[in-house]
Specification:
Length: 382
């Protein structure tokens, strides 16, 4: 089966993109939607979902129009100049380090559910094991990612089925103006799979395979959005105002420990695979685009999130909200600008070419900028 998956580039690519997107972010969604209300949550999913699909498609075309093997900072340096490369590098480091920090934080919550007691030792153990694999180097975890995705989706489906009979419509808060801006960064964080796009570009070797990149992006993100919304509705419908920031602990009184422990196990696995993908992406970015030796690149990628955790950055929702906002406003805007440049400066004929009016491109940039302003406004008034 694993051999077959290695040969089926379409399934491998879908697994990589979905696996990059579906990680810690899914567990923060019910909490922020509970706070803001279902109507704002649905609005954010629709608007940000559409924006994220387009940005991923833009990056896909950038990859296809460039012969060289690069990551986003490399593309920024090539098409936007050295200042653009520096800005994107800062954003990439902040975004990925923040995401890795989020995985370290939530791994402790999940291990606490499984073993029944608190302690940062769980967080440190999670970090140590995955750091070992990043230092050792892994060529691809796509086959593993495929099986983990199946298991994770199955567990989410089980939680949904167990939750369905216990859903109480009175638990749904339609809108709460006080927290209406809260979901923006968290939902954006949960939908971003940008690091996977250059990786998929390397998995798809032939022109026939590369033609499937557009379909892979649209299909994968659509599946993830549906999964996220159904999961969020199920959790909120059961736990209501008792919804926890990790989604699972608030469900224990209603669904029992066994099903929640199973969810925590697969939650850890999902966080672990995303940690490996993003940790390797940052390591390879520093290696390919800045020529920093692999071991030093790995030390930077793994050491920074641990340092932030140890000095006290341990609030899960705040971390992923910040990361989603930073990636959205800086990387989203940069990809749009690179997309405009690559049409003239690319050195390879792409397998797909999007025709997007400039007014839509600037509208997308305005969404990311206004979203960032809303987050500053919201958190400064807490």
């Amino acid at each position: 089966m694993a051999t077959y998956l290695m040969k089926d580039k379409f399934l491998l690519s879908i697994s990589v993109l979905i696996g990059t997107m579906v990680g810690a972010g899914i567990f923060g969604l019910p909490y922020v939607i509970t706070k803001s209300g279902v109507i704002p949550g649905l609005f954010y999913f629709l608007i940000l979902g559409g924006a994220i699909v387009l940005v991923h498609l833009f990056l896909g075309e950038i990859v296809l129009r460039t012969k060289e093997k690069q990551r986003l900072p490399g593309f920024a340096g090539r098409y936007l100049g050295e200042k653009g490369k520096i800005l994107i590098t800062i954003s990439t480091v902040l975004g990925i380090v923040g995401a890795l920090l989020a995985y370290i934080i939530i791994s402790g919550d999940f291990l606490n559910i499984i073993f029944g007691f608190d302690g940062i030792y769980f967080n440190l153990l999670f970090w140590f094991i995955l750091t070992y694999f990043i230092f050792r180097g892994i060529k691809s975890i796509a086959p593993t990612e495929f099986f983990l995705n199946i298991g994770f989706f199955f567990v989410i489906f089980l939680i949904f089925c167990f939750a369905l009979p216990k859903i109480d419509l009175q638990n749904f808060n339609l809108i709460n103006l006080e927290h209406i801006f809260l979901p923006y960064g968290v939902i954006l964080f949960s939908l971003i799979g940008l690091p996977a796009v250059p990786i998929i570009g390397e998995i798809l070797k032939t022109k026939t395979e590369k033609k499937k990149l557009k379909k892979i992006i649209i299909f994968s993100i659509s599946i993830v959005i549906i999964l996220y919304f159904l999961f969020s509705i199920a959790v909120i419908g059961v736990s209501g105002q008792h919804t926890s920031s990790d989604a699972l602990q608030g469900l224990i009184p209603f669904l029992g420990e066994k099903i929640i422990i199973l969810g925590a196990v697969f939650g850890i696995l999902a966080a672990a695979t995303s940690f490996l993908i993003l940790g390797n992406y940052l390591k390879n970015t520093l290696f390919y685009d800045y020529k920093i030796p692999r071991y030093i690149s790995a030390a930077i990628a793994c050491g920074l999130p641990l340092a932030l955790f140890l000095i006290g950055f341990r609030e899960f929702i705040s971390v992923i909200g910040f990361v989603g906002t930073i990636i959205g406003v800086i990387e989203g805007a940069a990809i749009i600008l690179i997309f405009k440049k690559v049409k003239q400066l690319g050195n390879r004929a792409p397998e797909y070419s999007l025709k997007i009016p400039s007014i839509l491109l600037y509208f997308l940039i305005s969404i990311f900028i206004l979203g960032a302003i809303s987050q500053i406004f919201y958190f400064s008034n807490l």
